[in-house]
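Internal tracking record. Fields below are filled automatically when a chain is submitted to the structure queue. Please do not edit lines marked as system-generated. If the sequence contains nonstandard residues, flag them in the REMARKS field before resubmitting.
Queue: standard
Priority: normal
Entity type: single polypeptide chain
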Amino acid sequence: SYIDKASSIAIVPSKINGADAYSAGCGLYKSLKILDKKVSFIHTHKVPEGCEHLLTQEELINDIFERELHVSIDYSQTPAARVHYSTENDVLHLKVKPIDKNFDLSRVKATIKGFNFDLVIVIGATELEDLGQIYHELKESFNLSSIINIDHSSLNKHYGKVNLIDNTKDSISTLMLQTISKLNYPLTDNIAKCFLTGLIAKNQIN
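SYSTEM-GENERATED OUTPUT FOLLOWS
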């Protein structure tokens, strides 16, 4: 499946479906974490009421503009055995030694990495534009990723590579719970609580 093959996964719940989409996403996130998948939970809005306990602030990515600087040094085929780093006046100094005086500096590379997922799981959005700023700022990245579209609305535009749409379900959390069960993905008490939170929130709205 796309999830099994993915090296980096983003889960993006739609604000439109509030606590139901958020809770369903939390349950899936926790299940994939147990499977040791590299997965991130993207949520730039306020956490829906009643869902604050599902994920920690550290587990949420709410700054979609954040980037990381990655520096790599290929010191293979050199006698280098020690790496030291220090900081001084907000400058990072990295020392790798010993190396040959003719060391090829092209083996030192720096790249900036940001939103670079190969699979995006969108939850509760009838179309990608429902994601608002997240989609508009990351449209190019979305276009380069495979998308799994999970929703229970008959209005869904089927924009994903995989479209898991079932409008007979009373909530997205119910659909997600049944999907995880069919896939034999981990289902712990904490994960079940996520889906229960979404189901309760959906029933309160109805």
